[in-house]
Amino acid sequence: MAITYASRPSRASVLIALAFLAAPVLAAALVLFAASIPDLSLLLIAGAAAGTAGLFLIVRPSLSLHGWFVLLVMPPALQVEPFHTLATNGACLAALASWLLADGLRRDPMAWNGTLLLLGICILWASISLLWAPDLVEGRRALIAWTMSFLLLFLLLQRTRSLEGIDALMLTLGLAGWLLILAGLFTVTLTSYDFTTRLQVLGINENMYGILLIVGLPGAMWPVMRASGGRRAVLMALSVVYLLLTLAFVALSGSRGSALSLLIVLFLFLFSRSVRPWGIAGLGVLVALLVVAPFVLDVVLHRVGEEEGSELGGRAPLWAASLDFIRDHPWTGGGVGNGPFALHAYMAAATGTFNHRIDLPSHQPFLEIAVDTGLFGLVLYVLMLGSAVWTFATSRRRWLGLGAPPGYYPVVIGVAVGFVVSWFKAGGMKHHPTLILLLALMLIPAHLTAARGGGPKAPRQHRAGGGTSSV
């Protein structure tokens, strides 16, 4: 979706909108902070410590923003409440404040595009759906999650306007991926893990662990593209080790979706000269595992062979119930955050298998959106995703014109396609931080061009190609 230069939002209106969106996050953080520490003296000490940490993060924009992303995808076993929620909300506010102080109050161009606009309209429609949502608490909780997603995407685009900014983002992504790899090694080697059972690492859902490792692939591969000589050889070896362990851990997790996603990623890598070595290495490692250590693949092959939960993993009844609900509530849905609860009655009419559950997500992002906010919300959501894909596709020529590594595009394409294969059958992934990260990776090239192009003609160039503009 293109935004003309004349119709772009003013800086004041964007700042006011961001302040409005951040208000629920700030309120939730303050309430949790005060409720978790009833003693006044401890409250003051904790407040002083939080304030100091906040100021430290504010003057380090990349640290606060990337730290916020890491907190959002932190494994459940490491989330100590209420400190994790406080830290997450605090990092969000620090990242927003650092942008306001560094760029927002100056005359620097602001990254804006059709994807952000449509995501903002999605949130506005979700807010309106609170008028008919029966449970306002669940509605507000879902609305805050949508708001956090918008802020994360917005700030990622503002802070990643150069190749150096991409380096910093990929470094964070790579470190997060390697930490998950090390956690997997610890679980396999230093615990009583049984190779005949599904691997679970730090409380992460077995299906989600593989997705996180796949999303971490660009962080392991990007440094190789930016290096040369002996350093490139060392980084290439490390990236192949990451790929080898990812293959092993995805197999041990028993996730059929993640296994299929990873195979698709490796297959797509073969079609691009710049990333073909990783595709060949990955498939070579897979063959080696089949020959040398076939027991590593036993769990996932067993699940594929027995087709546990049917070919759709038991999701067919949920999808059928979701379609029935959408037919009865095509325009309004159940209200943001209330879809999983409204769906229970439709499932109970068909089967008693899920009677122990009061919330039943559709386990399909598009259906979840439609159940929550109706067909209008679904159309906005599809247009938002389509806008990101269009911007990505039309900005490739300008990206290469800057002399940026050509491998960026095939890596993002491969990982995005592989991600979608698993995402399509996942529950609660319609605004997950990993999806927001992939949207950012698609939109960054267009705004990197805007940042480097300069001059008064930059907005016109972006309007013609990628649907982006500088505000």
UniProtKB/TrEMBL annotation:
Task: List all membrane-crossing ranges.
Answer: 12-35, 42-63, 83-102, 114-133, 139-157, 169-188, 208-225, 256-271, 278-297, 375-395, 407-426, 432-451
Signal sequence coordinates: none
The superkingdom listed in its UniProt entry is: Bacteria
Q: Where in the cell is it found?
A: Membrane
Q: Does the keyword Ligase apply?
A: yes
Q: How does it sit in the membrane?
A: Multi-pass membrane protein
Q: What is this protein called?
A: O-antigen ligase
